[in-house]
Design a protein that fits this description.
Layout lengths: L1 E9 L7 E7 L20 E2 L2 H11 L6 E5 L8 H14 L2 E5 L9 H7 L4 E4 L20 E4 H5 L10
Parallel strand pairs: 2-4, 4-5, 5-6
Antiparallel strand pairs: 1-2, 1-3, 6-7
This protein binds iron/sulfur cluster.
The site of iron/sulfur cluster (SF4) has 14 residues, from loops.
Length: 162
């Protein structure tokens, strides 16, 4: 996995004060993507055990509510991403929010494995024609804030409510 940026405190992406990881690489080419520089899978920096530890430790600070994963597309990454999710849950128990261009119903087996550790998945590509600046935590109205753990225990998608 490669990554573009880490934010030590982030109040814009998810509930409460969070730490954010912007991964590098996204297969979608949404018109007017917010982070076009993060689309190239060869850009950014290599993810390694040192930066992984630093990121997890940032989130352990008492005032941090959880971890947010954006990009790029976190769900287009490799085993490094799944390992990171597992470690966060096992070592901190804090919430994990993930933004992806994939649609929940179409996720592959690897992505479904990732879901076990995710609390909120904001799914679907950014659609310029459906853009609405008033929306909370998402850019266009086609995207959904999915309560993943409730959805996994249900036969339909359940949306996150704060
Ligand atoms: S899914 Fe997100 S990062 Fe990827 S092209 Fe669309 S807006 Fe950009």
């Amino acid at each position: 996995m490669r990554y573009a940026q880490i934010r030590e405190t982030d109040i814009a992406n998810g509930e409460g004060i969070r730490v954010s990881l912007f991964v590098q690489g996204c297969p979608f080419r949404c018109k007017n993507c917010f982070n076009e520089d993060f689309q190239n899978f060869c850009g950014g920096k290599e993810w390694d055990s040192k930066i992984e530890q630093e990121f997890i430790d940032l989130g352990k600070r008492p005032f941090i509510k959880g971890y947010s994963m954006l990009g790029g597309d976190p769900m287009a990454q490799d085993q490094d991403f799944l390992n990171l999710l597992k470690r966060i849950k096992e070592e901190t128990g804090k919430t994990i929010w993930v933004w992806t261009g994939y649609i929940y119903e179409n996720l592959n087996d690897f992505q479904k494995e990732c879901l076990k550790y995710i609390d909120v998945l904001v799914d679907g590509p950014f659609v310029e024609e459906l853009k609405d600046m008033k929306l909370r935590f998402k850019g266009s109205s086609n995207q959904r804030l999915i309560d993943v753990q409730k959805t996994l225990n249900s036969d339909k998608v359940i949306l996150w409510e704060d």
